[in-house]
UniProtKB/TrEMBL annotation:
InterPro entries: Lipid_II_flippase_MurJ/MviN, MurJ. GO terms for molecular function: lipid-linked peptidoglycan transporter activity. The keyword Metal-binding does not apply. This is MurJ-like flippase. GO terms for cellular component: plasma membrane. GO terms for biological process: lipid translocation; peptidoglycan biosynthetic process; regulation of cell shape. Belongs to the MurJ/MviN family. Keywords: Cell membrane, Cell shape, Membrane, Peptidoglycan synthesis, Transmembrane, Transmembrane helix. It is found in: Cell membrane. It comes from the Bacteria. The chain crosses the membrane at residues 43-68, 89-111, 131-151, 158-180, 186-212, 233-253, 273-291, 312-332, 352-374, 381-400, 406-430, 442-466, 472-491. It comes from Gimesia panareensis. Its main location: membrane.
Length: 504
């Protein structure tokens, strides 16, 4: 089982690397063509709207609730109940998301105002028709969330992992060949086409594997969608939707500054690259096996898997955080500074990236802790913690924006991310007696925190002394390697099984 998980994780990691790299190329293309401008702010909004709505209103909780339920029903029956659940869920989410898309299209100006509160009335008037176009991609994304969850439950996460790659490639072609500041409608229709293509690539393997076999019988009898399942779904949906709303809320606050959405998106994209990769592995590979272990009563297997995943997250995220902090400006200049993206824009983006990268360990660990709650069929606690965290984000953003500008908005996002993770960790330990890192006590956690901030402090001192980009990268790499060795030493000495081998 360990070898199977490791191989699956490796294959998904490769697929996600391609997906995230093409996502980065998409952002680089926008930076080259549109720079830091209102046009690019609008392009970022258009691309993010369908998946954001899907994750927040429909699909964000789909895997968290549907995967354990499919496992449970397969254990209790020959799979007929599971197939009916899958088909009826697809029908329900397609209908609901279609109605929601229509309603949002009817109030497009108000919806656009909520996404970008800093836009002027003229900008809202220009943006609303484009937002109406991309809303057609919303129902397609919600059905894709169902098919992705089905493939995960069958331990076939590779096809959903390639979904972002297909989506981004279509958008990159549109950006490079057709998109201009005056031709953003082409990008809007490209978003719809990319969402449709991504759905088709997942429907085909679902049919091949027989996931829908027998599911169309008694199609309109929705007894499989019982009240208990619906309640859990909406609790998980709200909890995950609130977390997904964190960057959206921050981006709305950032829209008050010229090019603020663009700057925020550029900085966040480099945080999303490692965070999205590890997060996707947790969701697509580890979570289905975790829910399966708990469904069979193998709590020890689940605890060992949680502990190993936590160790790997820390081993990767802490050194990466330190390295990116130290070489933020050379990295931004190398990746973005061309076309309409100036040296001044690179400096501003690097400053935001140095703040944003501090949230990465907390963001990845939060995904794992929420997965543990959902694998144990607990959805209310993450909902409460996410709601509290969102309130803190709004308050901190309002306060810090007045003192620090757009940097304050980013700092509020970082502080909220850590607050959310700490609440989840404490709640997991108190309510479910599950430790995120079994065998590592409070003093070891303090050592890891001290190590992270020491690495960042050393990087900050290096930035004051060295200005040559290549040397900055070299010295930041050395500091990152030191942090990697220190974290590995702590884990090998105190985390079970790390002293023998490093695996999932």
């Amino acid at each position: 089982m360990s070898r199977s998980v490791s191989i699956s994780a490796l294959l998904v990691a490769i697929a996600m690397i391609f997906g995230r790299l093409t996502g980065l190329l998409r952002v680089l293309g926008l930076a080259t063509v549109l720079g830091v401008s209102y046009a690019n702010d609008l392009a970022v909004l258009m691309i993010s709207v369908p998946d954001f709505l899907n994750a927040m209103l429909i699909g964000g909780a789909m895997a968290a609730v549907l995967v354990p339920e499919i496992h449970r029903r397969n254990q209790e029956s020959a799979g007929q109940s599971a197939s009916q659940l899958i088909v009826q869920t697809m029908l329900a989410v397609a209908l609901i998301s279609g109605i929601l898309a229509l309603l949002l299209a009817c109030v497009a100006p108000w919806f656009t105002r909520g996404l970008a509160s800093g836009f002027s009335a003229a900008q809202i008037s220009q943006a609303s028709p484009l937002i109406m176009i991309v809303l057609w991609a919303f129902p397609l994304s919600t059905v894709t969330a169902v098919t992705g969850a089905v493939l995960q439950s069958q331990h076939k996460p590779l096809v959903p992992a390639y979904g972002n790659l297909f989506f981004n490639l279509i958008l990159i072609l549109a950006i490079l060949f057709w998109v201009t500041p005056d031709q953003l409608s082409i990008l809007a229709w490209a978003v719809v086409g990319a969402a449709l293509f991504r759905l088709v690539t997942q429907l085909i393997p679902c049919f091949i594997t027989g996931a829908f076999q027998g599911g169309f019988r008694n199609l309109l009898k929705f007894e499989t969608l019982n009240r208990r399942l619906i309640v859990k779904y909406f609790q998980a949906l709200t909890a995950i939707g609130l977390v997904i709303a964190f960057p959206v809320v921050s981006r709305s606050f950032a829209s008050a500054f010229t090019g603020g959405i663009s700057l925020f998106e550029y900085a966040q994209k480099l945080v999303e690259l490692p965070r999205g990769l590890l997060g996707a592995i947790l969701t697509m590979v580890i979570f289905p096996r975790l829910s399966h272990a708990f469904a069979e009563g193998k709590a020890d297997v689940g605890s060992r898997m949680i502990s190993q995943a936590s160790g790997l997250i820390l081993l990767i995220s802490i050194p990466v955080t330190v390295v990116i902090y130290g070489c933020a400006e050379p990295m931004i200049s190398l990746l973005f500074q061309r076309g309409q993206f100036s040296a001044y824009d690179a400096t501003r983006t690097a400053e935001l990236l140095q703040i944003a990268i501090l949230s990465m360990p907390a963001l990845i660990m939060s995904i794992l802790t929420m997965d543990v709650f959902y694998a144990r069929h607990e959805t209310m606690i993450p909902f409460k913690f996410s709601l509290i965290s969102l309130g803190c984000l709004v308050v901190l953003s309002l306060v810090l924006r007045n003192f620090m500008g757009i940097s304050g908005v980013m700092l509020a996002f970082v502080l909220t991310s850590w607050f959310h993770f700490l609440m989840l960790t404490v709640g997991l330990h108190l309510k479910m007696q599950v430790s995120v890192i079994e065998g590592v006590n409070l003093k070891h956690c303090a050592a890891l925190v001290l190590l992270t901030f020491s690495g960042i402090a050393i990087s900050a001192m290096i930035l004051r002394v060295i200005t040559e980009p290549v040397m900055l990268v070299v010295y930041s790499g050395f500091v990152g390697l030191f942090c990697f060795g220190a974290v590995l030493l702590i884990l090998r000495n105190h985390l079970p099984r790390f002293h023998r081998k490093l695996s999932l």
